[in-house]
Amino acid sequence: SDEYASRGGVDGSLSPVIDATNKIPEYAAPLRSFIDPVWADWGTEDGQFETLVPPSEIDYGIKNRLPWEQKGYSVPRKNQKAHNNKCGDILLFMPQLFARNGHGSQLNSYFLAAMVATYLGKAMVILEAPQKNSRYPNGSQFGCPIESFKNPEEFLNFKGNDHSELAMKRDFPNGLERLIKHPSWLSRDCGIPTCDGTFDYNSWEAIRKDQRDLSRIGKPPQEILCAENRGNVKVTVMGGEEVRQFFNRQYREKMVSRSARHARERAYNWAVRLGGTHYQAEVFSKTEEESVIWDYVSALIARSGLATFQPWIVRDVKEFIMSTELPLDVPHDSIHVRRGDKLLTDAREEVVNYWHSQGYERQVDFPLNYIPFTHYLRLWEIDCLKYVWDGVSDKSAARTIYLATDDPDSIKEEISRLPMGQGGTTIVGGCERVRFVFSPHDENESLHLSEGGVGKVDCVERYERNIHAIADLMILTKSNTFVGEFNSNWGRVVRIFRTHLNDMYVMPDDPFSWKKLFGLNSHEEKSVGKVEHPVLIHDIRIAFAEDKLVPPPGW
């Protein structure tokens, strides 16, 4: 979006900037492989496929630290009732509106809703569309695994083309929750409010639609006071679009404000509700640079386990990834090449800029209507000779690059024009042996470009496409070096899960005391000593639009 102006640096954030010396910044996170070796020593194998980050990086103690889970938690008397009723204030999130969007858009919408709920101090409860209100015969845009059928044997013996003819389990998760497990630390185990049985899905849907008008005129969202058996409950209902509008117009500036004591206290409490420890919340409350604030939020989201997949997703993603040629116990790199519909919309400006930089003035003279794959490779090969794993640098060792793309045929043709290396590998710049790995699914399938699979009638085929997309996403987030862009929701999701809190970060002394002691201004003060960063980011190379700021997580 044009609203994110350049601040210098590759993406306006703490992402690694590769300079002429080919030196990787000190704040880059360490190398990683798909299989988490720490988790492998004591965790389950399925745990390696449950989340978008190595499982040993997940903080599983979040719920136990939250204030409303503490029996002896002390609060002011005027707030005692609210704290005793952890379900007294609810953000009711209705994801159905974005069900036709791609995976990236739906996940970002969910993350943004979680950010808004935790910032406002609300429990986040998901209200999925019941079958009669769903666009999907099987109740979910993410298709139907075998567990969703009432009679699995009937499913296995089915010979038709439309599995919606088969009976489905009524209590099987619908909508977004067929993909992810909504965490109890976020929902606080609160039920869906019904206002003592007087509100159903259609009632909340009508209120959600009314929220749009409020956001357009700059007013805060409407709260419904709902009488329940457990007491009165304040309910704020939003869908994906409303979350985006209210975030941008009502909350965003407040979220990054640190100008007053109450603003810093609000930031501290927000970080705690996002799962941060006391020290991490202290760091967050004193962080003033907007880009660093959003990176810190991303890192909290990544370590919280917010994107944890359902057991059937884990099982089938695991099977799919293990069927690829990707080595899972050594580091791999990844490149995301998005073409397809983006060439006519978001990416068109960047395509034009690229070919202008190559000396082509008129668009009719452009050799291609997209940015060639060699451009991505040039970014990747910069640190080829500095590749180190377990303390060993080996120029002749084969490097593996996983390619996630909606245009595999063209990219394979581009790769075929590169010089060949030993053992079926390819020579890329200073790397003499590069092995490219593609997804094993049908080359003509466009994975995440299918609007969540809406165009596919059969729910089983839609589910298979869903598995392919999540597998690609998991491989990208867990790669060592990632080359891509942030024009797409997909790329922005990848970036969230490549952020990592710096456990070695030490807060500097109160800057005001430094100013008083040495008479330094803020610019001079920052130049004293070694600069530390509270957030580490796994190596990212931005393919284009590098002069634009990365938007907040979830945007």
Write up what this structure looks like.
With 555 residues, this protein is an alpha/beta fold. Helix content is 34%, strand content 11%. It contains 19 helices and 14 strands. A hairpin with a 2-residue loop joins strand 9 and strand 10. Helix 4 packs across helix 8. The longest helix is centred in the last third of the chain and has 19 residues. The N terminus is likely disordered.
**Numbering strands along the chain, what is their spatial order in the largest sheet?**
9-10-8-5-11-14
The average pLDDT score comes to 85
CA radius of gyration: 24 Å
SS-derived structural category: alpha/beta
As an assembly, this protein is: single chain
Task: Indicate the percent of residues in helices.
Answer: 25-40%
Termini gap: 10 Å
Biggest pleated sheet: 6 strands, mixed
Number of strands: 14
Which key features would you list for this structure?
34% helix, 14 strands, 11% strand, six-stranded mixed beta sheet, alpha/beta, globular, four-stranded mixed beta sheet, single chain, 555 residues, 19 helices, disordered N terminus
Q: Could you outline the blueprint of secondary structure elements for this entry?
A:
Blueprint: H1 37-40, H2 62-65, H3 77-84, E1 89-94, H4 103-120, E2 123-126, H5 152-156, H6 184-187, H7 201-216, E3 224-228, E4 231-239, H8 240-256, H9 261-273, H10 278-285, H11 290-304, H12 311-322, E5 333-337, H13 348-357, H14 373-380, E6 388-389, E7 392-393, E8 399-405, H15 408-416, E9 426-428, E10 431-438, H16 459-477, E11 482-484, H17 489-496, E12 499-501, H18 511-518, H19 522-526, E13 535-537, E14 540-542
Parallel strand pairs: 1-2, 1-4, 5-8, 5-11, 8-10, 11-14
Antiparallel strand pairs: 3-4, 6-7, 9-10, 12-13
